[in-house]
Amino acid sequence: MAKYKTEFKVKVVKEYLEGNVSYKDLAKKYSIPDKHIVRTWVNAYESQGYEGLKVSRKNNNYSLDLKLNVVDLYLTGEMSYQSLANELKISNPSMIARWVKEFRDEGIEGLKPKKRGRPLNMPNTDKNKDLKNKHNKTKKELSELEKLRKENYYLQMEVEILKKKIQFSQMTETEIDEYLRSLDH
C-alpha cells in the first residue's frame, strides 16, 4: 500500500465527515486503491484525532502480554479488529489480524518477537561438521518433534486464554478497559 502524507489523509477524512460523499467515491476521486483505506483513516481520525492519521516512522514493539490480551479479546468475540485498534490506539487494525493469524498458526510462539535480518553463516570446520552429524535426526523424529511442539503450543494457548477469561470474568468493564490501557504504556 502506498504511503500518504498526513495532510492528504486529513483532507480526505474531513471531506467525508463534512459531506455526503461515500468511501468509494472518495477513493475513486483521489485514486486510492481501496475504499477500506478511507474507512480506516476515518475510524483512526474519529478515535484518535489528528494523531491517528500521522505517518509513524517508528516501529512499535508491543509486549507479548498485550498481544495475547488483544488476541484473546478478539477470539472471545468481544471486540472487532477495528474497535480493538481504536481502543488501544493502534493505527493499523490489520496488525491485530496478523497477530490473530500468527497465534492460530503457531500459538504463543507466533506472538513472540522474531529475529530479523540475514542469519550468520557458521564457518565450515571439522568441529562444526561433527556437531551437525551428532544432532542430525531422521525425518520421522523431526516430524514427531514438530507435532509435539505444536500440541504443546496449543495447550499453552488454552491455559493462557483460560487464565485471562477467569481474570476478566472477575473484573468490571471499566477495570478491563483500564487494564488494557495499562498494557499499552
- In N-to-C order, the SSE pattern is HHHHHHHHH
% residues in beta strands:
under 5%
Compute the CA-based radius of gyration. Answer: 22 Å
Shape by Cα distribution: globular
Walk me through this protein's architecture:
There is one protein chain. This protein has 185 residues and is mostly helical. It is 65% helix and 0% strand. The chain has 9 helices and no strands. It has helices at residues 6-18, 23-29, 35-48, 64-75, 81-88, 93-106, 126-135, 139-169, 173-184. α2 crosses α3. The longest helix has 31 residues, at 139-169. It starts with 5 loop residues before the first helix and ends with a helix. 16% of the residues are buried.
Topology overview:
Layout: H1 6-18, H2 23-29, H3 35-48, H4 64-75, H5 81-88, H6 93-106, H7 126-135, H8 139-169, H9 173-184
Helix pairs in contact: 1-3, 2-3, 3-5, 4-6, 5-6
Descriptive keywords:
9 helices, 185 residues, mainly alpha
Condensed summary:
The protein has 185 residues and is mainly α. It is built from nine helices and no strands.
